[in-house]
Write a structure and sequence with these properties.
Uridine Diphospho-n-acetylenolpyruvylglucosamine Reductase, domain 3, 35% helix, binds flavin-adenine dinucleotide
């Protein structure tokens, strides 16, 4: 029997959920009462404290009536059983920092958010096999601290989103970085999840008593089911094992300046060849255009830009030249024994020197030397060089599996407030406007050029600066990220219109996003008659007949 709600809880619930909204729920009030009994009062938030879960940088607002904070797998099972018996939709998050795609907000209004950030144990790291078994709340920063405390020489699969983001949440979104295990779901070896009926799922071989073999072999045996839990609403993952890349003897970053835009096609071909022949010694490679570099190295030139307009290309060129930034920059890292890295360095130089007047390699040692030299320079020369050396040093840290907030500053470029220095950055909390357009582009010269032209043509029509990065996510494909940066909620509609125009134009050429923000998700999921969504629908409705787990997330409507 559930305890009836006391007066204060009833008042809080009424304030959180207008009575008209409650009519949609079979029994939200009863669910809250049962959750309080199961999890304790503090783990059930119905009043203040729900703000973080309702908004994101994409300027979306979802009404979230309740937030739950279970701290064990058994508690998550109870959460799900109660949601099912009371017919309340729920949406799990790990740290909820899915900035630019929807943050902590659910795809649909009026879902209860299940916040797993309190499940933050590193369960184990096998020092020989480099297998880390973690809970959803384990962040990049927390895993780094765990490894450092124990002297374990492995890399954290870092991303631009930085130290406060969950490894499980990022892997489930199929996020990526540019350390050797760049595709983060590829590194997932096994997992445990709570299904929509409250029962437990475990990867195949674990269920047969071979957990270590299971963690060492991604595919287990039989149909590969673990993948169903990524980009979906098939269950709540409460434990995951990921393979960590060992930190090699040598990590060297390289930067290739490409001054002539006409060289882009040739560079794309060379990069593909290098990646295909590197045998894993080359991590991901980023090709970034000048505007993207400006967003990293120079403040937003607000005084020179008409409100609501994009930066004029000539001005971008002149600002870039002033800051010493090329038209395109290739950025990557080499990993391995000293001899392997020396060989790779030679290959990078040999292939790219025809297209670039400047190729720089840097290692921890050369960055330390540069830091020392900069300190000896007279004041006027020092500050810009100091900034670059600091940037190189932070970049090298990220590429070595040490998370940093460096790339997160991008979200603040057009924002009215600068990135905070006294607390961790959080672009959603700080009101930054960013929507990621992230299409896959085949790694061929002609496709890359077509794609770049589309982005350069369309973005300025919407007052958006075309900031382009092309990242190698496989031997055959780039994922491009275009952060659609906007200044505030009043520009959000134009920013979303820009996203739609990019989606439409790119679709014609077959360049489609690998990941969706929750306002645009239906661009895919409305295609209910495609063989793909029909199959997803059959699987989803078998496991979740009442569509209570993350409804609308990468799934067609019921
Ligand atoms: C400037 C900037 C740079 C960025 N750089 C990168 C980058 O380099 N690479 C990258 O991939 N992303 C990047 N991002 C996007 C994003 O911030 C990260 O991917 C971030 O890691 C996602 O948030 P999270 O880890 O807190 O996951 P969450 O927000 O917790 O999870 C994301 C989604 O996964 C699902 N989910 C989460 N946990 C569970 C669970 N336990 N069970 C079932 N489903 C679950 C939910 O649907 C949830 O909404 C960047 C964003 C910004 C603003």
């Amino acid at each position: 029997m559930s305890r009836p709600l006391d007066r204060q809880s009833r008042a809080e619930l009424a304030a959180a959920v207008p009575p008209a909204d409650l009519t949609g729920f079979v029994d939200l009030a009863r669910a809250v009462s049962l959750w309080r009994e199961a999890l304790g009062e503090d783990a059930v938030i119905v009043g203040d404290g729900r703000q973080k879960y309702q908004n994101d940088c994409i300027s979306v607002h979802r009404r979230v009536p309740v937030v739950l904070r279970p701290d064990t797998t058994a508690a998550v099972q109870r959460v799900v059983e109660i949601a099912r018996s009371c017919q309340v939709p729920i949406h799990p998050i790990s740290t909820g920092n899915n900035w630019g795609y929807g943050g902590a907000a659910p795809s649909k209004d009026r879902c209860v958010v299940v916040d797993l950030s309190g499940m933050d144990r590193v369960i184990s790291v096998d020092p020989q096999l480099g297998l880390a078994t973690i809970e959803p709340g384990v962040t990049q920063g927390a895993l780094r601290a765990y490894l450092d405390e124990r002297g374990l020489q492995f890399m954290v699969p870092t991303t631009g989103a930085g130290p406060t983001c969950s490894l499980v949440g990022n892997a489930l979104e199929r996020g990526y970085g540019i350390t050797p295990h760049s595709d983060h779901f590829s590194a997932v070896r096994s997992l445990r999840a709570v299904l929509p009926d409250g029962s437990l799922y475990e990867s195949a071989l674990t269920s047969f008593g071979a957990p270590l073999a299971d963690k060492g072999h991604k595919w287990g045996v039989g149909p590969y089911v673990d993948g169903l839990f990524s980009q979906s609403g098939f269950g709540i993952v409460t434990e995951m094992t990921i393979a960590l890349a060992p930190l090699p003897d040598s990590v060297q970053a390289f930067m290739v300046d490409i001054e002539d835009d006409d060289q882009l096609e040739a560079v794309v071909e060379e990069v593909r060849d290098l990646i295909q022949r590197s045998g894993g010694g080359l991590g991901g490679v980023n090709l970034m255009n000048r505007l993207r570099l400006l967003s990293m190295f120079a403040p937003y030139p607000r005084q020179n830009v008409e409100p609501g307009q994009a930066i004029d290309p000539l001005m971008a060129e002149s600002l870039g030249r002033k800051s010493g930034l090329p038209t395109w920059l290739g950025l990557g890292a080499l990993y391995g024994d000293d001899e392997v890295v020396a060989g790779m360095r030679h290959a990078v130089r040999r292939r790219l020197k025809k297209h670039s007047a400047r190729i720089r390699f840097f290692s921890k040692r050369s960055v330390s030397q540069a830091k020392w030299m900069v300190r000896c320079l007279p004041g006027p020369f020092r500050s810009s060089l100091e900034r670059r050396v600091l940037m190189a040093s932070e970049l090298l840290e990220i590429l070595s599996g040490r998370p940093r907030e460096t790339a997160l500053k991008l979200a603040y470029w057009k924002a009215s407030t600068p990135p905070p220095t006294d607390r961790p950055m959080d672009p959603a909390r700080d009101g930054c406007g960013v929507i990621w357009f992230a299409p896959l582009v085949p790694m061929r010269a002609a496709e890359a050029r077509t794609y770049v032209n589309i982005v350069n043509d369309i973005c300025p029509d919407y007052g958006i600066d075309p900031l382009i990065t092309l990242t190698t996510v496989s031997d055959q494909c780039f994922d491009s990220t275009v952060p659609i940066l906007f200044e505030g909620p009043n520009q959000a509609d134009r920013a979303h219109a820009c996203y739609d125009a990019l989606f439409d134009a790119c679709q014609v050429h077959g360049f489609l996003p690998y990941r969706m923000n929750l306002r645009s998700m239906s661009r895919y999921t409305d295609q209910v008659d495609s063989p793909y969504w029909k199959t997803v629908h059959r699987l989803k409705s078998a496991l979740d007949p009442n569509n209570l787990m993350s409804p609308g997330r990468y799934a067609p409507p019921y």
